[in-house]
Specification:
By secondary structure, this protein is α/β, with parallel strands linked by helices. The chain contains twelve helices and ten strands.
Length: 277
C-alpha cells in the first residue's frame, strides 16, 4: 500500500518554490514564511520547508537566536484549507487511515513546535499581522513574542470544526488560566496586538515599522550573554513550568555551580570588583 505521508513529503521537497527565506547575520538568523499573497498559510510545501530550515539552524552551533516572522501583511494564516481538503481528508480515507494524518500533525506541525521549544537557541516571534491556528501555536511556542499594532492573534480552530492543537491548550491555559482560554477558543475571539500585550501573551507591543529592529535587538541581547547562560537558561526555565517549587529549586541548585566554573563568570565578577582578583 502506498505511504501517503511519505509521498506528500516527497512532493513537497520536489516543489521548487522558496516559501521560507533565511537571512543569516553573525550569531542570529531571520526566518520568514514567504507566501504573502495567501497570508503565509501553512501549506504542505511551506511547512516542510520551515521544518527543514529550522532543523538546519537549530543544529548550528554558531547560532544563538532565531527570529520567526512572516512576509507582510501576515505572520501566518495557519493551516492551509487546501491542505486539509486535498491531503488530510484523503489520508483519512486511505488504506492507512488516521495514523497517516497523525504522522503529519506530529512530525510536521508538532515537529516545528518541538524544534522551537527544545533547542537551546532563543526564538523571537515577530508577529506583524494575522497569526491564526497553527501559525499562532508557533508564535506562542517562541521564547519571546513581539507584536505590532497590526498583529491579530486568531485561535481559529473551532470555526473549522477542529480543537486546539500543537500545544496551544497548554501554552494558553498557563498564561491566561482556564476560563479565559475557554472563552478565547469558544468565541473564536481575535486579539489585537494591544490586547495580546495587555493579557501578557506578548512581551511588547511595537510600532510595525520597528518590529524587526526590536526583534534583532533582542537577538543582540542574547548574543551578549555568556554562551553557557544562553544555552542553559532556556531549558531550565522551560522545565520549571512543569515542576513543583521544590523540584525547580533543586534543579537550579544543581545547575548554578556549573556557571561558577566558567571563565565568563570569573571575568564578570572581577570587572564588577574593579579588576581585583
Amino acid at each position: 500500500m502506498p505511504d501517503q505521508y511519505a509521498t506528500l513529503i516527497a512532493e513537497c521537497r520536489a516543489d521548487e518554490r522558496t516559501l521560507v527565506q533565511v537571512e543569516r547575520s553573525g550569531a542570529h538568523a531571520i526566518v520568514t514564511m514567504d507566501d504573502p499573497e495567501r497570508l503565509n498559510p501553512l501549506s504542505a510545501p511551506l511547512t516542510v520547508q520551515l521544518r527543514d530550515r529550522l532543523t538546519e539552524l537549530t543544529a548550528d552551533e554558531e547560532l544563538k537566536a532565531i527570529v520567526l516572522t512572516g512576509r507582510d501583511p501576515a505572520f501566518s494564516a495557519g493551516g492551509d484549507l487546501t491542505l486539509m481538503r486535498d491531503s488530510a481528508q484523503p489520508m483519512l480515507r486511505g488504506p492507512h487511515g488516521t495514523p497517516e494524518l497523525w504522522r503529519w500533525i506530529r512530525m510536521e506541525f508538532g515537529g516545528i513546535a518541538r524544534l522551537i521549544t527544545r533547542t537551546d537557541k532563543t526564538f523571537v516571534a515577530a508577529v506583524n499581522g494575522a497569526a491564526a491556528g497553527v501559525g499562532l501555536a508557533f508564535a506562542l511556542a517562541c521564547d519571546l513574542i513581539l507584536v505590532s499594532e497590526r498583529a491579530r492573534l486568531v485561535p481559529a480552530f473551532s470555526k473549522i470544526g477542529l480543537l486546539p492543537e500543537v500545544g496551544t491548550s497548554w501554552l494558553l491555559t498557563r498564561r491566561l488560566g482556564y476560563q479565559r482560554t475557554y472563552e478565547l477558543f469558544a468565541a473564536g475571539r481575535h486579539l489585537s496586538g494591544e490586547d495580546a500585550a495587555g493579557l501578557g501573551l506578548a512581551n511588547a507591543l511595537v510600532d510595525h515599522d520597528s518590529l524587526l529592529d526590536e526583534a534583532l535587538a533582542w537577538c543582540e541581547r542574547v548574543e551578549a550573554m555568556p554562551a553557557h547562560v544562553s544555552r542553559m537558561m532556556k531549558p531550565l526555565l522551560r522545565h520549571a513550568a512543569d515542576m513543583t517549587w521544590e523540584q525547580a529549586i533543586a534543579m537550579e541548585e544543581l545547575a548554578e555551580p556549573h556557571s561558577f566554573t566558567t571563565q565568563a563568570h570569573e571575568d564578570a565578577v572581577a570587572e564588577l570588583l574593579g579588576g581585583v582578583r
